[in-house]
Write a structure and sequence with these properties.
mainly alpha, 75% helix, disordered N terminus, binds 4-amino-5-hydroxymethyl-2-methylpyrimidine
Length: 224
Amino acid sequence: MDGSGVEASTTAAWMERHRQMYERATRHPFTVSIRDGTIDLSAFKRWLSQDYLFVREFVAFVASVLLKCCKQKDNLDMEIILGGIASLSDELSWFKNEAVKWDIDLASVPPLKSNLEYHRFLGSFTEPEISYAVAVTTFWIIETVYQDSFGFCIEEGNKTPPELRGTCQRWGSAEFKQYCQSLQRIADRSLANAPADAVKSAEEAFVRVLELEIGFWEMSSSQS
Ligand SMILES: Cc1ncc(CO)c(N)n1
């Protein structure tokens, strides 16, 4: 914290330090092809099916972040995280609606390898040894990759096909951006008060999320 009471942003420094990998996650050929209008619709449908399965696992992950939050001395962030869980309930309904539109039977979709790898990573956060600072930072970057990726698809000059606008709007909206910024403030505040080893673990988790997100786009593009 400097003399004015303003905390330097640790998360912003990491985005800078790992810029190349951040760009690979947020300007991936998969989402760039949505923006260009050249997206292969079978790849889009694969992403949609796999992401539904991802979000189901993500609910449990965010619940574990909420639990860690509630155990903090000052759990001021509780309402933001609880709001996040409430939005995930809407999101699951949204996926089910989209699946009907795209003629996908969600019940028969098996999770692909990169998705399972991501599930394992998310599952590791239920361990009580993983600190709130690490968990909430991980939560922030997972949401931010989608915000930045889909936000780009609705920025000026996009050729995003009309039937994909709703998807892009879901994560690319100004409202979702504000939510991500709230999470970023929470992450930065937690990191500012965390011991050095937790800060190091949080940075490792940040990089790991970027790798997993790249893997998820790759899987969606070409079924690996
Ligand atoms: C793979 C993935 N990452 C992030 C999000 C954001 O919620 C999502 N829905 N799916």
